Amino acid sequence: MPKHPSILELFNDKPIGTNVLVKGWVRTFRNDQFITVTDGSTIKTLQIVIKKEEHDEEKLKKIQTGACISAKGLLEKSLGKGQDIELICEELVILGESDPNEFPIQMKRHTMEFLREKAHLRFRTNTFGSVFRIRHHLAFAVHKFFNDRGFFNLHSPIITGSDAEGAGEMFKVTTLDIQNPPRTENGEVDLSQDFFGKPTNLTVSGQLEAELAALALGKVYTFGPTFRAENSNTSRHLAEFWMIEPEVAFNDIFDNMDLAEEFLQFCIKYALENCREDLEFLQEREANEDKLKPVDDRQSMPLIQRLEFVTNNKFERITYSEAIDILLNSNHYKKKKFKFNVEWGIDLQSEHERYLVEKHFQKPVIITGYPAAIKAFYMRMNEDGKTVAAMDILVPGIGEIIGGSQREERLENLIAKCEQFNIPQDHLWWYLETRKFGTCEHAGFGLGFERLIMYVTGMQNIRDVIPFPRTPQNAEF
RNA sequence: UCCCUAGUAGCUCAGCUGGUUAGAGCACAUGACUGUUAAUCAUGGGGUCCCUGGUUCGAGUCCAGGCUGGGGAGCCA
Fold this sequence. Notes:
The chain has 477 residues and is α+β, with helices and mostly antiparallel strands. The chain folds into two domains: 7-103, CATH 2.40.50.140; 123-169 and 204-464, BirA Bifunctional Protein, domain 2, CATH 3.30.930.10. The chain has helices spanning 7-13, 57-61, 112-116, 126-148, 207-217, 253-274, 276-291, 303-312, 320-328, 331-334, 350-361, 411-420, 429-436, 449-457; strands at 19-30, 34-38, 46-49, 68-77, 85-96, 152-153, 159-160, 172-173, 200-202, 219-227, 240-249, 316-319, 365-371, 387-395, 399-406, 442-448. An eight-stranded mixed β-sheet has the order 6-10-11-16-15-14-13-12, with helices on both faces. Strands 1-2-3-5-4 form a five-stranded mixed beta barrel. A three-stranded antiparallel β-sheet has the order 7-9-8, with no helix packed on it. A hairpin with a 7-residue loop joins strand 4 and strand 5. It is globular.
């Protein structure tokens, strides 16, 4: 048992008439009498009532926004309207002062941009408190979903020696002195003297490793940090992000779609059931922010309604070819409103995906059967010899949230693909060997955890759903 | 990396076709009030107008370059 109850516990148990000790941070101090305190356990705040005469002036002055206090007293039914319980304070201690002239977080609206520069203190705000509580619950939901279905969590390596995954630019990992690295006779950096004796990178995906495990354990999933050294400056990309990658032996692309859809709906439902108050707060926040925006940029549905819509409706499933047809037959296309051309074989542009999801279907869409040329080497070739068993799940507002495929399990096909994509086979010998020894059909997908959090919280910028975002030119904190 | 856009008080912003001493709300300080809900009322302090250079009698305002933030695109999750 903790030495003192959290505010969440006080609201749940409501031990009215008993003596309690509370610790937390001051939000406001009104009327020289009412201290609003939060301790992070819930979005709710506890009102502490003090009698001015019982405390010396110096102490009262220190009850300021951001200060840390502890209060002991009787928990009572509140006389005021804003809350049902309050603490009648008998003993008040200032644990940590907070000079209001320096503390940057005020009880008023701050911009996300400003708070991003105060990432060490932004946890103290309602918005980030809610976001990071929801982040926790979603992480827990991920593990629960897979655990309940007999999946094993696989810890794929962070440092990887393979450089052929093709998922993007990689961060190099080295212990060599970059000012003065050892050189070979012809002047090149001698990586054989590096820590691992070869070039190594931070992982861009745990998928290939997950496949190895799936072909033995059956159903596995990874949930860990991944890294992309792309110079991407958007509200949807991070250099360090968390990815969830299930991989299942004996699943085909249709099983894969079912799993992905069930998984997304489970996570969203879990948040709706376990984070109600935080979601209500974020919904109100979003509505207030929307008032400042032009009508066209506003959300069509309130946050919670959007989430319920996703859990209550089947995702739309179409093939890439059907998607192209829909685009070609759209008024949007006929009025030449697309910036990029539409024809079979193109990689769908953001504007195309957005049209399909936000205008045409207005719900999550799963697109399958992409042209082989625009997808990764490991995706399974379909019978037509032109398309692969790939799938992307697109959601309104975010775009691609899941990308997956049935994997190419036929050794000769995979070797042919390696040649086409200029991937040296000796870099992937271990991957290819799984196709040599007891290969079987299998499938999996990757979900960007932060994008899921964005969708659930309604936050517009991915930098605001991870505690300390890493983006090009920015690794403060 | 490309395109667009912004940078004025601690925060959020206003500042017109260049023209006296650069404004408001919030925050802060002091006082009043005391069952408040981001309390209220009064008074007060607070500025490298992002930086560098230029045009001009005169630049927060115009021009050029740079820095930083934001939006969009590409890459992707």
